Amino acid sequence: MNLVAASALYSTLAAFLQSKMHKVRCLSGANLAKVFRGLSMRRKSSAGRRSAPLGSRILNNPDDVFKHNMWDHVQWTEEEKENARQKAQENSSVQIPLKEQGTFDTEAEQYWDKFYEMHQNKFFKDRKWLFLEFPELLPSKSQATTRRQGDQQTKTLLPTGTDMESETRHCDHRDASPQHTRTSDYPRACQGVSVEKNEDDIHTPSFPGQHASFRILEVGCGVGNSVFPIVNTIKETDAFVYCCDFSPCAIQLVKNHPDYDDSMCHAFVHDICDEMASFPFPLQSLDVIVAVFVLSSIHPERVQGVVNRLSTYLKHGGIFLFRDYGRYDFTQLRFKKGRCLSENFYTRGDGTCVYFFTEEEVHDLFSIAGLEELQNLEDRRLQVNRGKKVAMHRVWMQSKYRKPFPPLPS
User: Fold this and answer.
1) Which residue, of 19, 197, 294, 409, has the greatest Cβ tally within 10 A?
2) pLDDT score recorded for residue 40
3) Domain Methyltransferase type, which positions (predicted)?
């Protein structure tokens, strides 16, 4: 699109939105009208819109705002960006004293155990959208996977699509069980890889899932809202799922789930920030690592070490799948003064913590760990409470990074 055509389109859209603005104010009040100022709701131009699988529901007409709970690919005006920056600067101007910050590390397990004891597995929705955004979770790159049954092969199709509205209904609290920065002495189920003899008297490693041809690890699994959609989809494949969380209560809830099957899933207690803790599988044995709303709960100074260590367990060609909070998400801007631990890092009223990433930070995080970028996107959406006539700007990061193959010998 040339500059003349772009300018004409801009003028046309601006005039149209201006004519509709009075109706929008009548629907939602002055505060919501600000959300639609200028062209903040327009679809990205073909030149600027990335090819991302982050939804296709575009709000072209502000009158339609309350027809759905979520709108995709929302752009912000420069004024909205500046207002968000100022709001974040304001709510971080008063930080929690350093001598008090340690509590959020030492008592992290207790905070989350109390949470799971209260809510059990009823707080979060299952993430049925996972395979839409992360098809790499399937052993095959195609839409069907195969398993060997004698001399025959059968196929298992992908589940039908669903959006992420159920995931984001809990936007006002938390999105996943975090792995805090604390190292503790709680009992661990991950005692490392054992060694035993086979029939030929040759020592070989023995570990859960050792015979699987495709292995997935989810870190910070909580009560299994990602695990069980994965398990139920890969049942007819030669895949195995590991899932860990530092909350013993959460892991017990996973094991008590009716879909838990230790022949294809292994849940264990693990603090991913503990440098001395071992995993129940060897290095370079994983095809996929999944971290959904987990790394944001770790102190920013610790995150790099966590990603570095996790990456050593990926096979060459293995994928690290990441989804988490983005800078200036609605949940960041509504923090009150006195909840900030450090820049863009906050603690909630229940003691859990959250950091808000940028694209550049995510890129550096995984690149320093030696992974190559496949996808690194800022997912901007408008979440709508149609009952209360309230709209909220949501910002998430979604990324995929691959462990490269070593160079061929010359």
Assistant:
1) 294
2) 39
3) 217-320
